[in-house]
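Progress narrative, work stream C.
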Amino acid sequence: MKIAISQPTFLPWAGYFALIDHVDQFVFLDNVQFVKRSWMQRNKIKIQEYEKLISIPVHSKNKFNQLIHEVEIDYRHFDHKDLIITLEYNYKKSKFFNLYFDKIKNIFEKKFNKLVDLNINLIMEISKIMGINTNKKLASSYNIKFKEKNIELLRKICLIENAKEYISTIGAKDYMDEIQKFKDTDIKISFFSYDQNFYNQLGKKFINNLSIIDLLFNEGPEAINIIRKNFKLIN
């Protein structure tokens, strides 16, 4: 069984969904320390010919060590209706906007208290739209107590799931010390690369590595085939 473990980021890029699609089990890493101003609370969309960061404000004052699943959305500084309007205004002319927009809008209108719940519900809905049926779980559901660095948590989850192969992002290669297997296991560690090639996009200038919604609104049902073509493993 192939497994991937990754933080539940906000409206992730296409490579995130390509990874989910590739594995048998995907685990949301929700029980590690939250990093402010990371992809956990922001991502990029296209506005005219430019990329723009959209962000979700969170309560972080005097909460330096809070875990991802503890982070609360700060609705005093976040109007979900403004974000919905931003998405609608900039993508309403895309070919498949009307097919998917209401499904994305409905997630924001639920006004989740926790950031992790907003992120995971968006990921689950987009996975459903794209036909990605990979099983998904929370890392916190394993009730693993650990004091070691995160690599040991990954190892323990893989052992519980009887994984044969762990798929990680290429950016984690240095962090993983370029090991080929977890300590005292036969679990193979592989790394994936995702290179987004051109796809139909609003405007004259193609912008790479935006949120998945850019690909989805512009390419619709073809999005799943596009992410599969651009995904590859690097050992």
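Work stream C, second folded protein:
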Amino acid sequence: MSIFVYEAVDKRGRIRKGEIEADSDRTARNQLKSSGLMARSIVAARDTRAEHSQAAVRRLDDDTTITFMQQLATLLGAGMPITEALESIAEGMETRRGRQVVGMLRQKVLEGEALAHAMKALNFDDVTCNMVAAGEETGQLDVVSVRLSGLLEHQRELRQELLSAVLYPLVVAGFGLLVMVFLLTVVVPQIAGVFARAGGDLPWLTSLLISVSEGLRTYGILLFLALAGVGAAYHFAMRVQALRWQRDNILLQTPALGSLLRKIETARYARTLGMLLGGGVPVLSALHIASQSVQMEPVREATIAARESMREGESLAERLRLSGYIPHLAIRLIAVGEQSGQLDAMLMRVADSYDAEASRSLKRLVTLLEPLLVMLMAVMVGVLALAILLPIMEMNELVR
């Protein structure tokens, strides 16, 4: 199917412009006529298939993906065929990108391609594609879609909570840094000129402050470029899995922060796995998909090793315990779930528990960080003020 750009006149004589999807310009004219529009011009735009490569690098944002999965779950649960469901969703999308991507999904499905493969080609994330693939394999795509939309919405709420928690400290730290740069580059040089005209020896703290100010004014641009270069080098270095593993391992071993990260990863893994098992996804497939949802490399390796152990008939809880990254209480609850045959329900209980604990730990950490930042800013401003006041006090003594 192709996209046609049209210009038409409605029954009141007003000119309407827009796009319509049809097999040919004649079909497009008939569709416009049935909608009460008289076509003045119809020009073929880009073919839908030609847009696949562009859509592959323009993925849907998180909010649109959640809306798409919620609507897909509702329509499939109502018994609507998948192609009709995708067509209905595409028509209801608010953004042009959303209509294009969902329309391309429908076109690929009409061509006989699996929905999961089509979503992967259009740059949906791996966890979403793997869960949809599991739903298609088991014939429970509607159930998996419901659970997936719930999982994505929960992850969005967690990200928003994290963002709101760290936003205030970041704003305070950024504003304090800008104030110090302004003082060192604008205020201190003027005061240094006054001291130079007055003559005499300056205290070591004042001399150090003036040296820092001169260095920042002289090499400030180079310092900024160096920091940008370090940031770019770090970004490219983190593409190497071994380096990511080292970074994540250091973070997981950091006091306070490591405990928080373990709780977050445990909750994410348990929730994904519990939802999949509750939706009827086979155990090994569910373990594979759940391991893809883990972001810290050492924890992900532990979950992959647990899947291989379960393939050989070993216990999931025992293998996770040996990794050392999953909290002890979570291991015990998972073991109880395996013994009772209610692993999915126990995993959801673990996820709820550690989500709540992670939220409390994050709030405590931020509550501790805020006064520390204020104290740090006060110390920096106090040192700067002391460096300026010391020579003034010495001048007063000389005058006396």
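Residues 141-198 form the longest helix (58 residues). No further action is required on this item.
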